[in-house]
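Quick one:
INPUT:
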């Protein structure tokens, strides 16, 4: 009986003396929030998503009218075919000229002219290949696809809208990565000094507890505490299969 009481006393004492986690308030944010646009100019043909939609990686989000891009690609492919034919003819002509020159039939100036024509044809062929690559790139980029599984946060595009991307491509959609969140808290310099990227920090949000990991610790103050002391941002990233609202309250269990 005495041993049992002693054991219970030791257990209670160890619990009472164990360090308790410090809870600090936090706010939910996206772990990755990406504004998207197209690097080419054109007219919006269709928008396939609305704010609040969840999309898979590679999902089509928006299309520009492909007509000018298809026409441009067709034209440069035709020029490439012509350049390939010209190159083949220039190659044959150069070989014939070289043979005649080696036999002493032709003068050096005629060989030089054949070399020049050969070089011009090869250059035209390389330029045509580059033009096809650029036209194909522009056609590919006339459609906007999701770079990762995400929630559609905002859409600022409508069918018929003219997109001018020559100087600064406009933001057409904003995506937030699905399943990954940040719990952002503001802590004192003393608390910030206790953490480094990779430190495990539990997150409490929407009645659930998540295993979080410190992603970054601020080096510059973002606000002042009640006593006037500077506060620094502590970002803790975590995964959740639940839908969490950005801006909602959470808390961090700081060891």
């Amino acid at each position: 009986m005495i041993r049992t009481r002693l054991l219970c006393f030791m257990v209670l004492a160890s619990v009472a003396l164990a360090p308790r986690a410090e809870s600090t308030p936090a706010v939910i944010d996206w772990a990755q929030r990406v504004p998207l646009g197209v690097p080419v100019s054109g007219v919006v043909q269709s928008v396939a998503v609305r704010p609040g939609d969840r999309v898979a990686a590679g999902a089509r989000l928006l299309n520009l009218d492909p007509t000018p891009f298809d026409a441009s690609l067709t034209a440069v492919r035709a020029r490439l075919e012509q350049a390939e034919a010209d190159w083949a003819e220039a190659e044959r002509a150069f070989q014939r000229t070289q043979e005649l020159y080696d036999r002493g039939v032709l003068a050096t100036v005629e060989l030089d002219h054949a070399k020049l024509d050969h070089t011009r044809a090869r250059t035209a062929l390389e330029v045509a290949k580059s033009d096809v690559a650029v036209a194909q790139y522009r056609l590919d980029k006339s459609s906007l696809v999701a770079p990762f599984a995400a929630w559609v946060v905002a859409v600022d595009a409508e069918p018929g809208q003219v997109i001018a991307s020559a100087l600064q491509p406009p933001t057409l959609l904003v995506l937030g990565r699905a399943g990954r969140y940040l719990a952002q808290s503001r802590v004192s310099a003393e608390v910030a000094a206790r953490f480094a990227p990779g430190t495990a920090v539990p997150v409490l949000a929407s009645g659930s507890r998540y295993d979080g990991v410190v992603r970054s610790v601020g080096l510059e103050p973002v606000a002042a505490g009640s006593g006037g002391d500077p506060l620094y941002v502590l970002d803790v990233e975590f995964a959740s299969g639940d839908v969490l609202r950005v801006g909602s309250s959470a808390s961090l269990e700081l060891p």
